[in-house]
Design brief:
The chain has 15 helices and 16 strands. Helix content is 40%, strand content 16%. By secondary structure, the protein is of the alpha/beta class. The N and C termini lie far apart (50 Å). A seven-stranded parallel beta sheet has the order 3-2-1-4-5-9-14, with helices on both faces. Strands 7-6-8 form a three-stranded antiparallel beta sheet, with no helix packed on it. The chain has a two-stranded parallel ribbon with strand order 10-13. The protein folds into two domains: 3-134 and 177-222 and 260-296 and 326-345, NAD(P)-binding Rossmann-like Domain (Rossmann fold), CATH 3.40.50; 139-176, no CATH class.
């Protein structure tokens, strides 16, 4: 396979993957709409990832996965598709429902419809899934063993009780890594669309005899992440706030945690899935194998930027957010030989050094919070 199409290829993961593939001798085509939310008000001029793509010689198609004609142009003569294009904000998905369904589900259906009903040369599909499809992660109850908590209720969270409870006996739980066979029960529209997207690609790939692989990415961060998008990417959101000398307001009690995985590790895992036959028709978690709480993230960013801003624990919360989740990596280690190479302390230093050399973006985070407040989704 020499010709690779990357949808959403001007984005964070896509551009990093595209540049690496190009250096390895592949012919890369990118389909991307240069969303202003991600790339800024003047994407053709201001987007560093877009400029890097143009300078590398990658073929760029400005278009959208919601357009059949754009798909027809992009798929022509391709050997493989890495389908990354998606709307990605968990909070935003709870009130931009049609937008998320149109892009994530309908856009994927257009691709699969063309692969089913037209002549093409595609021999493999890689789709970006998400840890969001799990909803709350996997836990251990002293009495009921492994359980999967349901959505936390407002009554508890208003009182400052944010931890998940056993769905059977309501007792305290111990967090354990979430494996690929864990229960899928997303708590956001975004998570639902990624679940559907993953299942569509795997189902039709098997039906058509086109090997497909899905990667359930955890929270990806690193150089190249959009610093102007106020809806997703906690490290970039916090960084933009800090560089504007704005205080950080932390949701809940700051102890909510995520699995932060560095961009190079994500790209390396994706390459293994693209190139290895052992990945065909499988799903894999891609993470760093360790949960980091949000308060720790905020403190490390403040320290790395040598900032004197304040970190406030607000007790506020967003509908659709989960408490904890980190990925079990045994499957991807055993089948693809993937092990993350970057610790969080190492990765965050590289990220912060990169941010220091970027133009400071306008901090629009409060606007995103106000949108959720107006919809009754922020408490």
């Amino acid at each position: 396979m020499k010709n690779i199409l990357i949808t959403g290829g001007a984005g964070f993961i896509g551009s990093t993957l595209g540049l690496k593939l190009t250096k390895q001798g592949y012919h890369v085509t990118v389909l991307d709409n240069l969303s202003k939310q991600i790339h800024g008000a003047n994407p053709e001029k201001d987007s560093s990832t877009y400029q890097s793509i143009l300078n590398s010689g990658i073929k760029f198609i400005k278009g959208t996965v919601t357009s059949k004609s754009d798909w027809v142009e992009a798929i022509k003569d391709q050997d493989a598709i890495v389908h990354l294009a998606a709307e990605t904000g968990t909070g935003q998905s709870m009130y931009e429902i049609q937008k998320y369904v149109d892009v994530n589900i309908s856009g994927t259906s257009l691709m699969l419809d063309l692969l089913t009903n037209s002549n093409h040369t595609v021999k493999k599909i890689v789709v970006a899934s998400s840890r969001a499809i799990y909803g709350e992660g996997k836990y251990l109850c002293n009495e009921h063993k492994f359980v999967y908590p349901v959505t936390r209720n407002d009554e508890d969270m208003i009182k400052g009780d944010f931890e998940c409870k056993c769905p059977i006996c309501n007792s305290k739980l111990e967090l354990v890594p979430t494996d690929e066979n864990s229960k899928i029960h997303p708590t956001s529209i975004y998570g639902i669309t990624k679940q559907v997207q993953e299942q569509m690609v795997l189902t039709m790939g098997k039906s058509l005899g086109i090997p497909a692989v899905a990667f359930r990415y955890q929270n990806v961060y690193g150089p190249g992440q959009s610093l102007s998008n106020p809806y997703t990417g906690i490290l970039s959101i916090f960084s933009t706030q800090i560089k504007n000398n704005n205080n950080l307001n932390i949701f809940e009690d700051g102890k909510e945690s995520r699995d932060f995985v560095y961009i190079e590790d994500v790209v390396n895992a994706t390459l293994l899935g693209l190139l290895k036959k052992e990945a065909d028709y499988e799903v894999f978690n891609v993470g760093a194998d360790k949960p980091i709480d949000v308060l720790t993230v905020a403190r490390l960013l403040k320290e790395n930027y040598n900032s004197d801003i304040k970190i406030n624990i607000t007790g506020n919360y967003r509908k659709g957010d989960i408490r904890h989740n980190y990925g079990d990596l045994e499957k991807i280690k055993n089948i693809l030989g993937f092990t993350p190479q970057f610790s969080f302390s190492e990765g965050i230093k590289i990220f912060c050094n990169w941010v220091e050399n970027q133009e400071v973006q306008e901090d629009n985070y409060q606007n995103s919070i106000n949108e959720m407040k107006n919809k009754g989704l922020y408490k």
